[in-house]
Design brief:
about 30% helix, 4-stranded mixed beta sheet, globular, alpha/beta, Peroxisomal Thiolase, Chain A, domain 1, about 20% strand, binds acetyl coenzyme *A
């Protein structure tokens, strides 16, 4: 069976930089607190209505498609991973299909939060391997900033997340041994509420200017449940940070080892590990546990915060742009997040 290669990568982040000191103006926090606990110095926040998950996904996709040397017309399957879709439904995949004037191809949305990109990669891989599709566009995009609680109550969550998008084009590998070697997916719903949001709180998308709400209702954009019928807190993400931390540092190394063992490799064989950018402390813990050198792990959460489904393709793009991923390299992608869900992919570049 043919293996699947990553033929092109792209990313997009909003121009609006929000530093830790900016956040300290609106809530009781500090640059020192955020830096020490998360490693984050700044993140990007989208411009409402102009930079939605779908719109940013399009911008990242255009770069990935160009880098793959194809056109949007060549794409035969869209996989879109996001926890912050423009609409509660339909998903972002069809919005991207429309904005990019693509053919009437299949579009699938994935709701697996921080592991969304790995789940998407695994799904895309199956379709390419079997020969069903030849050019799959996989997008991870998030707009967190519209839906965070910027009061002191939500500060443990709101300082962590940022907005952005990343995309890859997947094709049948052209060389023997090249491409995705294996993917490994897991979940355990016992942790479902530990990092969760009960109701949709994102309303980014509004393609018709006349439909822009004059005074957006807060909680945003829920068609079915009016704010007076539900607790306001249910529209904000909730996180028990310490529980997430403990589970993440257990599952990240486990799922990376699973990918290595499945292919007969050891941690030291990895040329580049791109962990989901959850928290710099989590990445450092994983690096230490696997005894990897600094040059074997790529992190950019310092500049973008945690962009959930977008974080791996954004980091992959920057690592590749900086020449840190070269042909023949063994690249490992791994994620852990809400669900709980976790997963990994091992790729011969
Ligand atoms: N600024 C200042 N103080 C804060 C902030 C803030 N932004 N947030 C919380 N605090 C305060 C709390 O109120 C508490 O004060 P108290 O002791 O007076 O009650 C104190 O800091 C400690 O609070 P904790 O929530 O226990 O803080 P902790 O040390 O656990 O750090 C953090 C919180 C950074 C979220 C940490 O638990 C963590 O990193 N968890 C991992 C979660 C994570 O990475 N999530 C990413 C998303 S999930 C994913 O992508 C895998």
């Amino acid at each position: 069976m043919t293996q699947t290669k990553i033929a092109g990568i792209g990313m997009y982040v909003p121009a609006n930089v929000v530093t830790n000191n900016d956040l300290a103006q609106v809530m009781d926090t500090s640059d020192a607190w955020i830096l020490e606990r998360t490693g984050i110095t700044q993140r990007r926040y989208a411009t409402r209505f102009e930079e939605t998950s779908a719109i940013m996904g399009v911008k990242a996709a255009k770069i990935a498609i160009e880098n793959a040397g194809i056109t949007a017309q060549d794409i035969d399957f869209i996989v879109f991973a996001t926890l912050s879709p423009d609409y509660y439904f339909p998903g972002c995949g069809v919005l991207l299909q429309r904005m990019m004037n693509m053919k009437e191809i299949a579009a699938l949305d994935i709701r697996n939060q921080c592991t969304g990109f790995i789940y998407g990669l695994s799904i895309a891989d199956q379709f390419v391997k079997t020969g069903m599709y030849k050019n799959v566009l996989l997008v991870g995009a998030e707009v967190h900033s519209y839906g965070l609680d910027f009061s002191n109550k939500g500060r443990n969550v709101s300082v962590i997340f940022g907005d952005g998008a990343g995309a890859v084009v997947l094709q049948p590998a052209s060389k023997q041994g090249q491409g995705i070697l294996s993917t490994h997916l897991h979940s355990n719903g016992n942790g479902a509420e530990v990092l969760s949001m009960i109701n949709p709180g994102f309303h980014g998308g509004c393609y018709n200017a006349e439909k822009k709400p004059q005074q957006p209702a807060k909680p945003y954009g829920n068609m079915f449940i009016t704010p007076d019928r539900i607790r306001q807190d249910d529209f904000y993400p909730f996180m028990d940070g310490q529980s997430v931390f403990k589970k993440a540092v257990e599952k990240f190394p486990e799922v990376i080892q699973e990918a290595l063992q499945a292919n007969g490799y050891k941690a030291n064989d990895i040329n580049m590990l791109i962990p989901h950018q959850a928290n710099l402390r989590i990445s450092q813990f994983v690096q230490h546990k696997l005894q990897l050198r600094d040059d074997q792990v790529y992190n950019n959460i310092q500049r973008y915060g945690n962009t959930t489904a977008a974080s791996i393709p954004i980091a992959l793009y920057e690592a590749w742009q900086e020449g840190k991923i070269k042909e023949g390299n063994l690249v490992c992608l791994a994620a852990f997040g809400s669900g709980y869900t976790w997963g990994s992919a091992l790729i011969r570049w």
